[in-house]
Amino acid sequence: MGEGQQGDPVRRVGVIGLGFIGRVHLAGLRNIGVEVHAYDVLPDLRTRAVEEYGATEHTSLESILGAVDVVDICTPTDTHAEIAFAAAAVGKPVISEKPLARTNDQAEQIVRTFREAGLPLHVAQVVRFFPEYAAAQRTIAAGKIGRTSVVRLTREGGVPKWSTWLTNATRSGGLILDVMIHDIDYARWIAGDVVRVWAKQFRPTGDDQVLSHAYAILTHVDGAISHITASWAREGAGFRTSFEIAGSEGLLSYATDEHVPVRFAPPELAVSGSGLPPITLDEDPYTTELREFLPAIAGGPTPRVTAEDGAAAVAISLAAIESSETGRAVELPVPDQPYLGSAPALETAS
Ligand SMILES: NC(=O)c1ccc[n+]([C@@H]2O[C@H](COP(=O)([O-])OP(=O)(O)OC[C@H]3O[C@@H](n4cnc5c(N)ncnc54)[C@H](O)[C@@H]3O)[C@@H](O)[C@H]2O)c1
């Protein structure tokens, strides 16, 4: 399916992994109105997907891969690669939850495999679809704050308790690869490719990440810097995110705990599942991202986040983990044609 050629719309999507985020994807796909198929290794979750989301149940990977037009990977991070390769082997486009993969080798190989096969691959870096974050990016792209110079991003909550693999750093990559990656991707989107990372992490490894907390400084290719904080040390105080983006001509700031325009009671009304950032009355961003990916798979416009962006976010996150372990900054290679961020290029003197 060539990009730019409008093909048949996607009819059947198979969600693999029906836990916390898999159910959010099921809800989004139902909102869009496509036929939903579901597979998880746990039979109870398959039954729930049938009863709550009207999904067609599959009891094996092979069965769901054979029944759908698009595969939506919502399993633990260290299983993304094997499922993506299985989908590619039978010619199925993939939407993958972030992080695209657990390692750089896997992420690069996934991107290469799909590119060489001409198969669409989309990575659900959902922060780009949150209305306030998307609006800030549009403002920057319109040149309204000038050149992006200093970016401060935070994402803080309690320790995730719904699944034990999340706090097992070997499987999830821990706080940086699981949580900070959201803001790493956003920082790169607005401020450009990252050439250096320094990071510090409290309680980085092992199976007991209670009160894990991480801080990273990214140096972007044009010298802008991003300060990013991610935390599982905000137990009992709710989940919050914030941004402060300083440009040469203005500043944009936002914090979920200061600006919640609509309060939902019970909170689950806002989006299925607690522990996600609060949202406005706009469409929830998990539906919006799927609404952008599915037409792209059918040959429509390229979405705001690409597979390469997903792999870049993994590379920067893993560099941050390395820095936190060694205490030294990690340099990242500068691409031949670096991505300079969302702001319009500065006019050069002729
Ligand atoms: N975008 C976001 O805001 C967001 C939020 C949470 C999680 N995530 C990402 O989504 C992924 C899943 O996280 P989660 O919190 O939903 O985890 P989870 O543990 O709640 O759900 C994962 C599900 O996958 C199933 N599973 C495991 N291995 C499988 C396999 N080989 N085949 C089929 N099913 C399998 C498990 O039984 C479980 O039900 C992770 O990569 C995570 O980083 C993204």
TrEMBL record:
Chain ranges of the Gfo/Idh/MocA-like oxidoreductase N-terminal domain: 12-124
Residues in GFO/IDH/MocA-like oxidoreductase domain copies: 133-252
Name recorded for this polypeptide: Gfo/Idh/MocA family protein
Annotated organism of origin: Tenggerimyces flavus
